[in-house]
Write a structure and sequence with these properties.
Blueprint: H1 20-33, H2 37-51
Helix pairs in contact: 1-2
């Protein structure tokens, strides 16, 4: 059996400027999926970084 080992990810607060229409789409997606706006943005950035082609 695996043991649960809690850990804390280090995070920092940043500020970004988004197009009004982009923010509206993010908010709509957040509401549809019951995930916070912040988590939608974090997951989107994570996906983009993992799939970025040089």
């Amino acid at each position: 059996m695996n043991n649960f080992v809690p850990y804390k990810l280090e995070k920092t607060v940043i500020s970004i400027r988004l197009d009004v229409e982009m923010l509206a789409k993010i908010d709509e997606l957040a509401q549809m999926t019951d995930i916070s706006r912040n988590e939608i943005i974090v997951q989107s950035i994570d996906f983009a970084l993992k799939n970025f082609k040089n």
